[in-house]
Amino acid sequence: MLLLFTCLASGWAHAADVRPGDTPVLPTLIILDGKKIAPASLRGKVVVISYFASYCPFCANEAPKLQKLYSNNADKLIVIGVNIEVDDADQKAKALKWVEKYHLTHPVTTDYLALERVLGKRKGLPVNYVFDKRGILRRIDVGEIFDEDFDDIGRFARQD
């Protein structure tokens, strides 16, 4: 318990932690069907990187909202779901079940560690990173977000 308190109180910073206004170079991601998403293919669209875990009830609440955001804005926005359960031998199976359960049509990956090296350690769950069409990080939402937030992201994606 003391170690946990010490870690929280010290506010450890990670070299890769990003902030709004930064332009991190995202890694190439392998999605569940084996296809790759290259960073260059994301230019010109708003990108939402959304961390989730199969055991997270807040992530479950957000999953249909993320799908709706993607469906309503697929020409201007991409959502990439990222399962964070890297220490679980069943990570891919759990991610596939998640996709099926929530009828997701946006890409989902298990490449959490590759993203962590670029974006830094997550501060909670769920976490959503929103990048503009030029790759600039515009917002980081830690914890469950509201319908209004998804509406704001959709409006942001539709701006020219």
Shape: globular
Tally of separate helices: 5
Number of strands: 7
Strand content: 15-25%
The unreliable regions are 1-15
Q: Indicate the radius of gyration in whole angstroms.
A: 15 Å
**SSE order in H/E notation?**
HEEEHEHEHEEH
Major sheet: arrangement of strands: 5-4-3-6-7
Q: What's the overall average pLDDT, rounded?
A: 89
Distance, first to last CA: 50 Å
How would you characterize the largest beta sheet? 5 strands, mixed
Give the % helix.
25-40%
Helix/strand/pairing category: alpha/beta
3D architecture notes:
- The protein has 160 residues and is an alpha/beta fold.
- 36% of the residues lie in helices and 19% in strands.
- It contains 5 helices and 7 strands; from the N terminus they run H-E-E-E-H-E-H-E-H-E-E-H.
- The protein has helices spanning 2-10, 57-73, 91-101, 112-119, 147-158; strands at 29-30, 36-37, 46-52, 77-83, 108-109, 127-131, 137-142.
- Strands 5-4-3-6-7 form a 5-stranded mixed β-sheet. It has a two-stranded antiparallel sheet with strand order 1-2.
- A hairpin with a 5-residue loop joins strand 6 and strand 7 (137-142).
- It is globular.
- The N and C termini lie far apart (50 Å).
- Residues 1-15 have low confidence and may be disordered.
